[in-house]
Amino acid sequence: MRWGSGNLETTLRRVCEKAVNPGVKLPSDLDLTPPVGGRNSRIAVIRDRTRPGVPAMLRLHTLGKLGFEGEGSTTLSSRRKELVLLAYLARRSPRPLTRAEAAALLWQDRDEHRSRQSVRQALLELRRLVGTGLMVESEQVWLVEQAVELDATVFEREVAAGRFEAAVVYWKGDFLPGVEEIAGEELRTWLESQREALRRRLRQALAQLAADARHRGAWQEGVGWAERWISALPLDQEAHLHLLRLLDLDGRTAEALSRYAGFRAQLRAADIEPSSELEQLGEVLERSTGSAPHPHTSSAALFTPHLIGRGPALGELVAAWQSVTEGGSCVVIVEGELGIGKTRLCQEFLQWLERRSGRQLRLRAYSREGAAPAEYGVLAQIAAGLAPATGLAGASASALAVLGKIAPAVRERFPALPESASGSVAEGFREAVAAVAEEEATLLFIDDLPQADSASRQGVLSLIERPPPGLLLIATARTGDAVVFTHLTGNTLSLNPYGGN
């Protein structure tokens, strides 16, 4: 039919009324106009004048189930091939698909004539459901953008926007479950790539939700997200790592060890090697169960009754240590008023860390108030602790010679060091710490850093400005005194009276 002028709309309305259902009048608010494409186009576009450019809400469910629903329509779950074709078109919208390509996707087992006939019948069925959102030409077909709301696409959009909790609501299971049995080779390949991309998004969302809960000290909430992750992806080792760590933090170390043993058996049955990280965590859990049990708590947390309300703060320190054990570095300044519990918080964290054993070095130094502190007093305490560390041998002779001036233990270990040493103590100190941290994760805790002697402060500042990989530096400071250090690092943990951090 050629598009003309004059009474075109009246003529087209009569044709459409007969095509829809003889005797049924189309609403007067429907706009029947030729589409973009010229006078010879064979497609009429019917637009709703009451909602220009906005189609009726049509939804296609593809995550965990397959179904279609729309205004005034019944779900269409029995016509699987038609809905799979619609999902394929929706994922590539608005790019067109040829009829031959559609036939190869789902009707590859039929001859050319029968497969094209099947495609034609499927498009008629979909056209009935989707209306003008489905554009059909003689040799190709495409879906207008946003003509159908696809749950997989909404899920991806929520993850991309950082709305992780909203995103996981859409996840009911894998994309187009069970479709392999009716799919051709090309469709099966496409299915696997789509599924893996969506699983990556799910991992991203649940990992962030679990990590956020851990950082806030909301261990049980984090356990919930990790359990949900495992339910969706049962053999995902990262999900189990999150779960085991959170159970351990929540004082459920025995349960974590039991879950570890069960998961390891699952991996063996599936002929999958457990990661080195999972094995190491298992060893830590085994050692931890031999020590005093953590008191169980149903809230975010606390390791001792004296630290009620400090769960989120402890969570921040635990998260910082985790990033260090994974090859990062971190500096945390814990600030608060006198007597608020800064030192107690850090000591509790150190005790928690000691129970986990593993390859780590923990050093403490205390500044002295009142009388003028000894020059290099804090650095000397730390250097003495570094002296037996295996990694210290990796520092240069000049750096060790400088340290030997303030810490005799260093010179005792390396007696061949030159008597005279060039270079600053601050730089020699930083090099020594970096060499040790390269060998094993290292924690330096300095209490009341602003009260340290000026020479020690300069040495510590060299670490704050350029912390080497493998180092977690925690220092306490009174509110107001920490400003000279906090402007160099974004990691400031401010302690308020119990109930808020």
Question: Which properties best describe this structure?
Answer:
501 residues, alpha/beta, 3-stranded mixed β-sheet, 12% strand
What does this structure look like?
The protein has 501 residues and is α/β, with parallel strands linked by helices. The protein has 19 helices and 13 strands. The chain has a 5-stranded parallel sheet, with helices on both faces. A 3-stranded mixed sheet has the order 4-3-8. Helix 18 (454-465) links the parallel strand 11 and strand 12. Helix 2 (80-92) crosses helix 4 (112-130), helix 3 (99-106) packs across helix 4 and helix 17 (425-439) packs across helix 18 (454-465). It is elongated. The model is unreliable at 1-6, 17-56 and 291-309 (pLDDT under 50).
Termini distance?
73 Å
Share of helix among residues?
40-55%
Radius of gyration: 33 Å
Which of globular, elongated, flat, extended, rod-shaped describes the shape?
Answer: elongated
- Helix and strand content put the structural class at alpha/beta
> Helical region count?
19
Provide the low-confidence segments as ranges. 1-6, 17-56, 291-309
User: How many β-strand runs?
Assistant: 13
Beta content:
5-15%
Please summarize the sheet with the most strands: 5 strands, parallel
* Strand order of the biggest β-sheet: 10-11-12-9-13
Instruction: Look at the structure and give the mean pLDDT.
Output: 78
Write the topology of this structure.
Blueprint: H1 8-20, E1 30-33, E2 45-48, E3 58-61, E4 67-70, H2 80-92, E5 97-98, H3 99-106, H4 112-130, E6 134-136, E7 140-143, E8 149-150, H5 151-160, H6 164-169, H7 185-215, H8 219-232, H9 237-249, H10 253-269, H11 276-289, H12 311-325, E9 330-336, H13 342-355, E10 360-366, H14 377-386, H15 397-406, H16 408-413, H17 425-439, E11 441-447, H18 454-465, E12 471-478, H19 483-486, E13 492-494
Parallel strand pairs: 3-8, 9-12, 9-13, 10-11, 11-12
Antiparallel strand pairs: 1-2, 3-4, 5-7, 6-7
Helix pairs in contact: 2-4, 3-4, 7-8, 7-9, 8-9, 9-10, 9-11, 10-11, 15-17, 17-18
